[in-house]
Every structure is written in structure tokens, then in C-alpha cells.
Amino acid sequence: MFKYLEELAVTEAEQVQRVIQALFRQTCILQVKYDPATLTPRDNPQYELCARHRNFIADYVEVLGCELVHDAQEHVFRLVGEHVPQEKLSLTSTVILLLVKLIYRDRIMGEGLNAPLTTLKEIREYGRNTNLITEKLTQAQWREALYLMRTHQVIDVPGAVRDVEDDTPIYIYSTVNLYVTAADINALIEEYRGEEEEYETAEKAFYADPDQ
User: What angle, 0 to 180 degrees and rounded to 10, lies between the N-to-C axes of helices 91-109 and 182-208?
Assistant: First the structure.
């Protein structure tokens, strides 16, 4: 297997290694990346590398218990399998991801919309309207969610995540559909409702107890 890399030019071999590292870090590689500030599409050189060395990369990740899948419709290479690194999202980050999914759905179903863009302000509005966000979130909570979504190629923002403000354009990639399915949405809503009910029950018990 490593003989394949040895036969490549040094620069090409290093690029292939970086592509594999990127796959394990972000689980997918998009063909086209967008600048959300200018909506300028740019070909992703890592995608082309992944396509050119697809057989080798597939064999490499298979040894590690993963599978390289090419989604021709979404134009994305991604890792699947039980050994793909799993990142446990907090409930807040999961809720924000769900809201981004809802916004993306409304954007692509709308008329005359050139790109699936959103902002923190709009995400908060969706949160209030769906009752999924019932309290003010901290900057740390927003940054955690934005950072994770950007890392996993769900969104893009101009500049650093720490500089995102209420009206900063946030570009949503179709990969949001890979992370949030209809089943995920239903499960999340049930989990969220369950936690809310437990909290309300505990709160009522606290105020009902005269010894508290």
C-alpha cells in the first residue's frame, strides 16, 4: 500500500496524506467551496486529489475500518462506517444544527433565492418560532456550534468564527442533509421535549417542597 505513495512525487504524496487527514477530521470533502461573502464558487483541490487517488484512499481507510463513499448527487467524498470518528454534539449545538437544516430546506424550496444563506439573527428567529430556543444562548455556545458545523463542511463563514456577528452571512452547504435526517429531527425533538419536561417537573417539585 505504501509503495503507491513512494511512487508519487513527494509533493503529491504529501497532498494525498493531507486529504486523508482531512477526511478523518471533517468526514467529507466537497467539490466546490463557496465564499459566503461574495458567493464565488471555487473548485476544491482536495476533491480532485481524492478523485484521482480514490482507489488508494479507499483501500487505506478500509484498513482502518471505514469506507470512502462518493455521493455523485451532492458532489462529495465522505467517510462512513462504525469506525469513523464520532463527535458528540451538545444538545444546544444539535438544536442549532437542526435550525440550520430547517433554514436550508426553506431556502432551496423558495423562489428567486440564489443561495442558501442565513445569519445568527435568523437562526435565533427560527429558534423562537419553533420553540427550540427558549433562552438566550451564550457566545461560547454559538461559537461551539458554528465551529463544529464549519469543521464538518456544513457551513462557511467569511473570516474566523469568533468574528461572526448577527448579520454576518453564513453559507449553508447541502451536506447539512447528510448530518440531519428526518429521523434525527424527530429523535431530537423527542429528546428535547423529554429534557424540558424533566426540568419542569424538578422545578415544580422544588417550589412545592416547603423545606426548600
Answer: 140
